[in-house]
Design goal:
The two termini are 41 Å apart. The chain folds into 2 domains: 6-305 and 365-452, Luciferase-like domain (TIM Barrel, Alpha-Beta Barrel), CATH 3.20.20.30; 306-358, no CATH class. It has an 8-stranded parallel barrel, surrounded by 8 helices. Strands 5-6 form a two-stranded antiparallel ribbon. It contains 16 helices and 13 strands. By secondary structure, the chain is α/β, with parallel strands linked by helices.
C-alpha cells in the first residue's frame, strides 16, 4: 500500500519557538501567542488543511547557558515568555471536530497523580484526540526552578520516567473497569464501587494510593509521543512510545535509530510497526518555484543566527570567531578549557561547520522549497527512501506556513494518495495514526494492568 504522510503542525505557546528571529516579520502573528483567539484561529486552519495534529512543545526553564544568563533568550522572546500548553487544548478542541493535539509534559519535576487527571480530562473534552509527548527535561534552569541544585543525571531521569509511566498506566488502565460507570438514575448509582479500585503503588520515586479520579476516557491512555536518540531514551521508546520524533544527526543516524527502535520493540514483545517515526521538516511552498524561493529568502532576511546558539545552549560565542577556526581554537581563545575537557562539543569542526549544524532551521536534510509538485516529490522521497512516517512541520510564519501547506501541498499529496481525502467522523487520534482501535493494543506494557491485574 502507498504510505500516507502523518502531518503535525509544530507549535509552542511563545513568541520565538525554533525559527529564531522570524517573529519580527511585520505580518507575523507570534506576538498574539497569549490571546486565545490566536489558538482557535490556528486550530481551524489546521483542521481545514487536514493536519493530523497540532503538536505543542514546552520547556519549564529558561535558556541560560549561552552567556551564563537568561537575558539573551528573554530579549529575543526565545521560548520565554511561554504558556502552559495543556491549557490551550480545550479552547482549540471547542472550535474543531477532528484535528488532534500533542502536549509536552515532563516526568521529572511534577508528581504523576495530578497529571493523570489533567490528561484524562483533555481526552474526555476532545473525544480522544490527545497525545502526550513524554520528556524528561534538559534545561539546567528547569532543575533549579523545582528546588534542585543541579540537573538530575540523564539516565536517572529515564529511571524516574519509567516509574512515572507505570503509575499512569495503573491509574488510566487499572483503576477503573470498562463497566464501572452505569449511570443508573433509578438506583442512584453512578459508578459500581466494586469496579473501581486503588492502585496502592509504592516505588522508589513515587507513592500513589488512588483510585484514579477520572472515569475512563475514550483512549484511556493518550497517544504516547517521545523524542530521543540516547541509549536510555531509545530503550524507553522501544518499550513505550507509539510515535517517535527522530533526526538524521549525525548524518546516517536516522536509519540506525529506526532499526534499533524496531529491534528493541520486538524484544519487548511489541511489533516492528508499533512505532511511527516523524522528523522535523521544513516546507516552504509557492505556486511557482520562484515564488517559493523568494518567500524563503524573505524569511531568511529575519533570521537571528545568535538565537540558534542560545537555543542549543552553546557555551561560547561562535559569531565572535572566524568561520575557518576550529571549535577547539575558538574555545581556547575564550579560555573555556572546561568545555574542551568536557568533550561534549565537536572540537574538530570549524566554527562555520558548527554554526550550520546548530541552526537546523536553514540547513537540514528534511528541507523542501519549491512549487507543490516539487515539494510533493521531495516528501515522497522522505517516505519511501528515508523510511519515515510523517513530519512535524516547522513554522516560519504564523499562519502562512499552515495555510500554504493546506492550500498548496495537501491537494497534491492527496492526488498522489499520500494523504487521506477527509477525516473519519468521531475517530480518536490513535485510530487516525494506526488504523486500529482507540486503545493501546494488548501487547503494550500498559495493558498488563487492565481489569486491576498486576496492581
Amino acid at each position: 500500500m502507498t504510505k500516507r504522510l502523518i502531518v503535525n503542525l509544530f507549535e509552542m505557546a511563545t513568541p520565538g519557538h525554533i525559527t529564531h528571529g522570524l517573529w519580527r516579520q511585520p505580518d507575523n502573528q507570534r506576538e498574539r501567542y497569549a490571546d486565545v483567539a490566536y489558538w482557535t484561529e490556528l486550530a481551524r486552519i489546521a483542521e481545514d488543511a487536514g493536519f493530523d495534529a497540532i503538536f505543542l512543545a514546552d520547556v519549564v526553564g529558561a535558556y541560560d547557558v549561552y552567556d551564563d544568563a537568561f537575558e539573551p533568550a528573554l530579549e529575543r522572546g526565545l521560548q520565554i515568555p511561554n504558556l502552559d500548553p495543556m491549557l490551550l487544548v480545550a479552547a482549540m478542541a471547542a472550535v474543531t471536530d477532528h484535528v488532534g493535539f500533542g502536549v509536552t509534559f515532563s516526568t521529572t519535576y511534577e508528581p504523576p497523580f495530578a497529571f493523570a487527571r489533567r490528561m484524562a480530562t483533555l481526552d474526555h473534552l476532545t473525544g480522544g484526540r490527545v497525545g502526550w509527548n513524554i520528556v524528561t527535561s534538559y534545561l539546567p534552569n528547569a532543575a533549579r526552578n523545582f528546588g534542585l541544585a543541579d540537573q538530575i543525571p540523564h539516565d536517572t531521569r529515564y529511571e524516574i520516567a519509567a516509574e512515572y509511566v507505570e503509575v499512569l498506566y495503573k491509574l488510566w488502565e487499572g483503576s477503573w473497569d470498562d463497566d464501572a460507570v452505569v449511570v443508573d438514575k433509578d438506583a442512584g448509582v453512578y459508578s459500581r464501587p466494586g469496579s473501581v479500585r486503588a492502585i496502592d503503588h509504592e516505588g522508589e520515586h513515587f507513592r500513589v494510593a488512588g483510585p484514579h479520579l477520572s472515569e475512563p476516557s475514550r483512549q484511556r491512555v493518550p497517544v504516547l509521543f517521545q523524542a530521543s536518540a540516547s541509549k536510555a531514551g531509545i530503550a524507553f521508546a522501544a518499550q513505550h512510545a507509539e510515535v517517535l520524533f527522530t533526526a538524521d544527526r549525525p548524518p546516517g543516524a536516522l536509519e540506525r535509530n529506526i532499526a534499533a527502535i524496531r529491534d528493541e520493540s520486538v524484544r519487548q514483545g511489541r511489533r516492528p510497526d508499533d512505532t511511527r517515526f516523524l522528523v522535523m521538516a521544513t516546507v516552504i511552498v509557492g505556486r511557482t518555484e520562484q515564488e517559493a524561493r523568494e518567500k524563503a529568502e524573505r524569511y531568511r532576511s529575519f533570521r537571528d543566527p545568535e538565537g540558534a546558539f542560545i537555543h542549543m545552549s552553546v557555551p561560547f560565542h561562535p559569531l565572535d570567531h572566524p568561520a575557518e577556526l576550529t571549535v577547539r581554537e575558538a574555545l581556547e581563545r575564550e579560555g573555556r578549557h572546561d568545555v574542551i575537557d568536557a568533550g561534549a562539543l565537536p572540537l574538530h569542526l570549524t566554527v562555520g561547520q558548527f554554526a550550520r549544524a546548530v541552526d537546523e532551521a536553514w540547513d537540514s536534510r528534511f528541507f523542501a522549497v519549491g512549487d507543490p509538485q516539487q515539494v510533493a516529490d521531495i516528501i515522497e522521497g522522505w517516505l519511501d527512501d528515508d523510511g519515515i512516517d510523517g513530519i512535524n512541520l516547522r513554522q516560519y510564519h504564523s499562519f502562512d506556513t499552515a495555510r500554504d501547506f493546506g492550500e498548496l501541498v495537501v491537494p497534491e499529496l492527496r492526488r498522489r494518495g499520500r494523504m487521506r481525502e477527509r477525516y473519519e467522523p468521531g475517530e480518536t487520534l490513535r485510530e487516525r495514526i494506526f488504523g486500529e482501535g482507540p486503545r493501546l493494543p494488548d501487547r503494550h506494557p500498559a495493558a498488563r494492568y487492565r481489569g486491576g491485574a498486576g496492581l
